[in-house]
Design a protein that fits this description.
The complex is a heterodimer of chains A (about 350) and B (about 500). Chain A is mostly helical and about 350 residues long. Chain A has 14 helices and four strands. In chain A, helix 9 (about 225-255) crosses helix 11 (about 270-280). The model of chain A has no long low-confidence stretch (mean pLDDT about 85). Chain B is mainly alpha-helical and about 500 residues long. Chain B has helices at about 10-40, 55-100, 105-120, 125-130, 135-155, 200-235, 240-255, 255-265, 265-270, 275-280, 285-300, 300-325, 350-380, 385-390, 395-405, 410-430, 445-450, 465-490; strands at about 45, 50-55, 175-180, 190, 330, 335-340. Classes of the chains: A mainly alpha (about 350), B mainly alpha (about 500). At the A-B interface, helix 1, helix 2, helix 6, helix 7 and helix 12 of A face helix 1, helix 7, helix 8, helix 9 and helix 16 of B.
């Protein structure tokens, strides 16, 4: 088991290195650097001025050197800006050049400086990431129990009316991407012209103009049902159908097992059979699926945060990518890759622990 | 001219009836679910004459209620459709107008279903699909959009206005607003309203279907070519090749899709020509696939082999060159110039936005297909017929393509349907972030993106494309479900 985890960790690090190198390569292509320069300086810079801006900042050095600097295995660049001041990768604003360390990169715990937000990348990631964690936490709280209940109810009696209707419901939710369900929810619950809100206003059931809010910006400080329910349910619904279908499949399989038949023949109540005999075995497969949903949630988070203007991790990704903020984008990809790979690892290990029939030597 | 109401004069009778029928149906379904929870077994009563009656009493009553109210509901919906087709917007309001515009699609759909059900026993898996209700509903939804795309794309039917033209005074107008300054020959209404640039929402939705229906299946097909060509050897040979290819696939899958799109589809990256190189590589896979497919089968008869190879590969190679070259070059920028097919022979230039979108969608989809094919190959290579082929002395590629692949077709067909739906979602995602296609493009993702900015004030521009995308993807998912069910019955 230890060796298995070690090998997986090795593959993880290799994957993360390759991936960040690809991101590094793509963001450091010359047209992207030119765009970065013009957004830092001004948009009427000539080609020579662009080169003069990029040169002292080390952007025109060979790619491996630049990547090594970001990793922290090559000394950071030091140069002079147009006014003759000494600048450098490791010289933070307000720091004397002599005090600055020689190496500063990922290994030293320094992720760089964001050109869009004018702040240290690690601080941004922590701040935005905590917002997204809040969102994800609520999504999980809604999605996982909901999906398991739907899946167990549907798989309990295969082919029944309940099974048919719940299965169709799960298919419908997997067919509705977040940007569609979000738009539909906003149109129904958060648009002042929607029939539902007009009805509620006229009958005096709500004080404001709409039942729920179509923007979650205020949820960053103070999340309430009104401003946070729509983003949460939008992400939760898309992931829910898939988990519910997996739970249903595994539940129907368990319900046909011999020991369930024995229990039924003994005269155990159906409810007891479902809750005590079947459920525990039926939940092994959904566990792995739930863990593997994290990468998908990450996608949903980007869409929903953009749609509802919730300034979290996904919103940061869009800002960084849209403005070619190289170091922020690299940090974002490191974090998301780590999330993806760690959840894969947990799902594998968890599967082995939960299922006594599988053993890894 | 007065604005149209939602259902027009025919709605005066039909709307209350529709309300009643749906209310009764809703009550019936809820009662049914509650009853199925309380009464566990289906009741069977034996009569004195020896016959058995299933589910009498209260359960039978709810079943009857549901059955009849559903029938009533369907009849009323049929009345709406017929009323709409016959009387258009004057009789059926907005809904009637929309239904009348879709008349060719509806006729084609009815014809398709009548013919398919009539001859379903001689149509193989497709005919069996007509036995499953879910599959039929899914197929109907998919074909609805396929026919819409076809009739709009080839005959310019269905849409009421040009999807790009703006009409002054129609900005953000609600559905059913009369066209400002309509001349003779113009359609007199904006059926589903105007968007924030005063364009017709209905026509844009219809025009968007063409883009999706062309790109999504083709992109999925290319992803399957890539996935199959790489996945079969990875699963069959295993070893270093498998390790390497699986690592690559996992690498691409570890990228958040949206980050990948942002990295590949921005104008700066397009300028460097990277999407073009990717297109040159990815588009070559169908050539490789068919080349190997034919060669592995006929290499024992060289003359026939060359003839078939030439017949299949030469046109494909020409299409390949047409697809990748633009203005006589593969890539032509300040740093690199790579000539391709001369302009004289280049019949068609794919719009650059579409090419980039296509390539990135294929790129994102291929690793998943690769993993599925690899898994299937790993499973099937242990079968006896593969061992028999190996004993006969068949070559590896023959075994992979003519023994393993045909036996993996069931899961692959089902996944193909699901994956077209997923590709549609990806295309929508690209549009939603304003990547790839030009902003005025009527594809559903871009239209949703435009509409979402004023969503809480004017929800009507964003809703039609959302519902269209939803119905197409739902149709594909239901179709896949029906196919899976029917193929499992064998």
């Amino acid at each position: 088991m230890g060796l298995f985890i070690l090998r997986r960790l090795g593959v993880m690090i290799l994957t993360a290195l390759c991936l960040t190198f690809i991101v590094f390569f793509l963001t450091n292509l010359f047209p992207n650097l030119e765009k970065l320069t013009k957004s830092e300086g001004n948009f009427r810079m000539s080609d020579e001025e662009v080169i003069a801006w990029l040169e002292p900042r080390g952007y025109l050095d060979p790619l491996p050197v630049k990547y090594g600097r970001w990793l922290g295995v090559v000394p950071g660049w030091v140069g002079e800006d147009s006014e003759g001041r000494v600048i450098g990768r490791c010289i933070l604003p307000g720091m004397a050049p002599e005090e600055a360390p020689r190496y500063c990169g990922l290994l030293q715990g320094y992720m760089g400086y964001s050109s869009v937000f004018k702040a240290e990348v690690s601080a941004i990631i922590v701040e935005r990431g905590s917002q997204t964690l809040k969102l994800m936490g609520w999504v999980m709280l809604v999605m996982v129990p909901g999906a398991l209940i739907v899946g167990v109810l549907a798989g309990m009696r295969e082919g029944s009316k309940m099974d048919r209707s719940l299965s169709t419901f799960s298919i419908a939710t997997t067919a509705t991407p977040e940007y569609v369900s979000g738009v539909i929810f906003i149109a129904i619950f958060a648009a002042s012209a929607s029939p539902l809100n007009e009805f509620l206003r006229e009958s005096g059931l709500i004080d404001g103009r709409t039942l729920l809010k179509g923007t979650a910006t205020s949820a960053m400080e103070n999340a309430t049902f009104e401003n946070f329910f729509l983003p949460v349910i939008t992400i939760a619904l898309y992931g829910m159908g898939y988990i519910a279908r997996m739970t249903r499949a595994s539940m129907t399989e368990v319900m046909t097992a011999q020991y369930i038949r024995t229990a039924r023949l003994k005269g155990v109540a159906f409810r007891t059979i479902v809750l005590k005999h079947a459920l525990r075995n039926a939940l092994i497969a959904p566990f792995t699926v739930i863990m593997l949903q994290f990468p998908w949630l990450l996608n949903g988070v980007v869409i929903v945060e953009t749609l509802f203007n919730f300034k979290g991790f996904g919103w940061t990704l869009v800002q960084a990518a849209g403005n070619n903020d190289i170091e922020l984008l690299l940090a974002v990809s490191v974090v998301s890759v780590v999330v993806v790979l760690v959840t894969q690892l947990i799902s594998d290990i968890g599967y082995v622990y939960l299922n006594p029939r599988i053993r890894i030597a | 001219m007065d604005p149209l109401s939602w259902t027009g004069p025919i709605g005066i009778f039909l709307n209350p009836a529709l309300g009643m029928a749906s209310l009764v149906l809703l009550i019936g379904v809820i009662a049914q679910i509650v009853l199925s929870w309380v009464m566990l077994e289906e009741r069977i009563t034996f009569n004195a004459d020896g016959t058995a009656v299933k589910a009498g009493g209260i359960v039978g009553l709810t079943n009857e209620i549901v059955k009849w109210s559903l029938a009533a509901l369907l009849l009323i919906l049929l009345a709406y459709i017929l009323g709409g087709v016959l009387s258009g917007h004057s009789g059926g309001g907005v809904m009637g107008g929309v239904t009348q515009r879709f008349t060719p699609v509806l006729v084609a759909l009815v014809l398709t279903f009548v013919l398919s059900i009539r001859y379903k026993r001689s149509l193989g898996l497709y005919g069996k699909l007509m036995d499953s209700t879910i599959g039929m509903i899914g197929f109907g939804l998919v074909m609805f959009w396929v026919y819409t795309a076809f009739f709009y794309g080839t005959f310019d039917l269905i849409a009421t206005h040009d999807p790009l033209s703006q009409v002054s005074g129609m900005k953000n107008k609600v559905p059913g607003t009369p066209l400002n300054g309509a001349e003779a020959g113009d359609y007199a209404y904006y059926l589903l309203g105007g968007d924030n640039l005063a364009r017709d929402v209905f026509s844009r939705m219809v025009a968007g279907s063409t883009i999706v229906i062309i790109i999504a299946p083709f992109a999925t097909l290319f992803a399957f070519m890539v996935g199959i060509t790489l996945g079969l050897p990875a699963g069959y040979y295993g070893g270093t090749l498998d390790t390497f290819l699986s690592f690559l696939a996992n690498l691409i899958l570890a990228f958040p899709v949206i980050l990948l799109f942002y990295l590949l589809v921005t104008p700066e990256i397009v300028m460097t020509g990277i999407p073009k190189y990717m297109a040159a590589v990815l588009f070559a896979f169908p050539l490789i696939f068919f080349g190997v497919l034919i060669n592995s089968r006929y290499y024992t008869e060289p003359s026939r082999n060359f003839r078939i190879l030439a017949i299949v590969l030469l046109p494909m190679a020409y299409l390949y060159l047409i697809a990748i070259s633009e203005g006589g070059y593969l890539v032509n920028n300040e740093d690199v110039t790579i000539p391709a097919l001369p302009r004289l022979f280049d019949l068609y230039d794919i719009a650059p936005g579409i090419l980039v979108v296509f390539v990135s969608v294929v790129f994102v989809n291929s690793p998943t297909v690769f993993r599925i094919v690899r898994g299937l190959a790993l499973d099937i290579k242990t079968r006896d017929y593969v061992a028999a082929a190996q004993t006969r002395g068949e070559r590896p590629w023959y075994i992979m393509l003519w023994e393993i692949l045909p036996n993996a077709r069931g899961p692959l067909i089902v996944d193909f349907c699901l994956r077209i739906g997923y590709t549609t979602i990806l295309l929508g995602t690209l549009g939603f972030f304003g990547l790839g296609l030009p902003p005025e493009s009527p594809d559903w993702g871009s239209t949703i993106n435009e509409g979402r900015k004023l969503l809480s004030i004017y929800p009507h521009p964003a809703l039609p494309p959302s519902l269209a995308l939803l119905s197409l993807v739902l149709g594909l998912n239901l179709l896949a479900d029906g196919l899976r069910e029917e193929s499992l019955k064998d």
